[in-house]
Amino acid sequence: MQRILSSSTRRRLDIQGFERYADADLAPVAPWLRLAFALCALIAGIGTVFASPLLLLVLVPIAALAAILPVHPFDLIYNHGLRRLTGTGPLPRRGAPSRFACGLGAVWLVATAWLFASGYLTAGYVLGGVLTAVAALVSTTDICVPSLVFRSVFGFPPRRGTSSDR
Fold it and tell me: 57's torsion region: left (phi>0), alpha (psi -120 to 50) or beta?
């Protein structure tokens, strides 16, 4: 069964930095690109609910590595395990917009952890809740708010036609 990307999903992935990949290469693995953000949302959400600076700080090096490297550390779960079960190829390398989002997430995690550790619970819940919501949004809809910010500053990729042109 061949998967087809909708034009809206394709646009959202282009905004995240996957514009260099052909539809045929991206379509089979596109749902798995959400896994890293889903795991981050889950851990950040649990850390926020329990006002746990430690749990939030555990995510900081993961987010920082995701900002520096073209492969998110959580992508390795798919690349070295899950893809063998799905029969699909490895995830493509992440572009600058997605890495920017992870860098922003790392800073946001540190700030949220500091707020909880310093006793500013309300501010910690607000910051942690927004972070979790942003990560949940990209993990469910491919809409990445930090990637939109990045693209607003550095330019959006050109829009594609209705057919696959790559």
Answer: alpha
